[in-house]
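Support request from a user on the community tier.

User writes: "When I paste my structure tokens into the form, the page sometimes reloads and wipes my input. The last time it worked, I copied everything first. Here is what I submitted, just in case something in the input itself triggers the reload:"
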């Protein structure tokens, strides 16, 4: 049995991990864009980018299934897509959003945003939702979508 302080430390660590990984969720990223993208065209491109990240990752997961570290059961095609590990959509979303906000905000605030995908990637691995390759794939996907959207800016 673990000493009480070790259980408390583990509980706090787990809670922080879950909180940080939420920066890769669609609702959080969708809320960050309107807060910092002042120009309506910029906001529209940010939302378009998030949609592109989700659609592209769904297509990849529909074509190529890869089990998560903790395999998730699936009984139909939709559940199969959701239980696929590659690429990490949380990491892709947070990477796109961080790069997008980095390019549209002040420099010092931009650097804070750049740290978020790193934290999200680490937490996805700690939560056993993804392997490093999945997280790296999410970074690449988020960057490529940002680059494509950047061509429209």
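"...and here is what came back when it finally went through:"
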């Amino acid at each position: 049995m673990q000493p009480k302080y070790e259980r408390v430390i583990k509980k706090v660590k787990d809670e922080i991990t879950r909180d940080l990984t939420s920066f890769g969720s669609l609702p959080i990223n969708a809320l960050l864009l309107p807060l910092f993208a002042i120009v309506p065209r910029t906001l529209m491109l940010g939302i378009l980018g998030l949609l592109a990240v989700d659609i592209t990752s769904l297509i990849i997961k529909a074509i190529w299934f890869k089990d998560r570290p903790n395999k998730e059961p699936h009984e139909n095609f939709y559940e199969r897509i959701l239980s696929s590990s590659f690429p990490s959509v949380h990491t892709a979303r947070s990477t796109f959003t961080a790069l997008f906000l980095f390019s549209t905000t002040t420099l010092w605030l931009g650097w804070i945003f750049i740290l978020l995908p790193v934290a999200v990637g680490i937490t996805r691995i700690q939560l056993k939702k993804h392997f490093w390759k999945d997280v790296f794939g999410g970074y690449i996907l988020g960057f490529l979508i940002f680059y494509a959207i950047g061509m429209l800016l």
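Agent notes: The reload is a front-end session timeout and is unrelated to the input. Residues 4-150 form one domain. The chain has a mean pLDDT of 80. Escalated to web team.
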